[in-house]
Specification:
single chain; alpha+beta; globular
């Protein structure tokens, strides 16, 4: 399989996937396929199983076989990045971040604790392994790789975590003093070995308003008054 990006790096908003004979990929967001070059029978859409429908909130996935090529694109603000997967990979992903994966990939389910499932609204994480496979990952903004420490905790915004090593320990927390903890999203307090993948395009409507420019009085009141960002528009 060969990936051609619209940018000189592996990170892009659109990529062309070129498949050789007997190669195949599974596309979990087939509505993002912009163009396809090949024989009609080389694209086969299938209904997902019930578990897949629940995890992806989708009903159909596409299997595309080679020799063929297709262009897949994302809306503005989202990025595609290819992650190589080997037999030793221990990263756990949410299905919503998987854009496509190569045939032959072994997929294992990992059930979260009830507490973590409530925080993330996802009951199952997915572990991928392969002799020589590739995952196409979709993220809000570029991906950033951060190394964990087995003793010193790393705090990560719950909404920004794309993948983490299976050995990691996660606890939902806030951090800082009382004022800091009142004005932040839930974070994961993480320890372990390996790397986490973070999406860096964090959405914040209030940040956009602040950058566009509000009066100093409104901005101060939003910060000082509890729930000020909700009460004061």
């Amino acid at each position: 399989m060969h990936i051609v990006s619209d940018q000189p790096t592996a990170l892009s908003q659109a990529v062309t996937v070129q498949l050789e004979p007997e190669e195949a990929v599974y596309v979990l967001h087939p509505q993002q396929i912009i163009s396809f070059q090949g024989q009609s029978e080389q694209r086969e859409d299938r209904f997902m199983d019930i578990a897949g429908m629940y995890r992806k909130r989708k009903f159909i996935q596409s299997k595309i076989t080679g020799p063929s090529s297709f262009l897949i694109g994302l809306p503005a603000g989202f990025c595609i990045q290819m992650i190589p997967i080997t037999e030793g990979s221990d990263l756990l992903f949410e299905w919503k971040h998987i854009l496509f994966y190569t045939e032959g990939m072994k997929v294992e389910r990992r059930i979260q604790t009830f507490k973590n499932a409530v925080i993330t609204r996802e009951l199952v994480k997915m572990k991928f392994s392969s002799h020589d496979g590739v995952l196409g990952i979709v993220s809000n903004g570029p991906l950033y790789m951060m190394e964990l420490d087995p003793d010193r905790p790393t705090f990560v915004d719950v909404g920004c975590l794309v993948a983490y090593p299976e050995n990691a320990t996660l606890k939902p927390r806030v951090y800082g003093n009382t004022l800091a903890s009142q004005y932040m999203n839930y974070h994961w307090e993480m320890t372990g070995r390996g790397y986490v993948l973070l999406q860096t395009g964090k959405s914040d409507a209030q940040f956009a308003k602040d950058i566009e420019g509000d009066g100093i009085v409104k901005r101060v009141l939003r910060e000082v008054i509890p729930f000020g960002s909700v009460i004061i528009k």
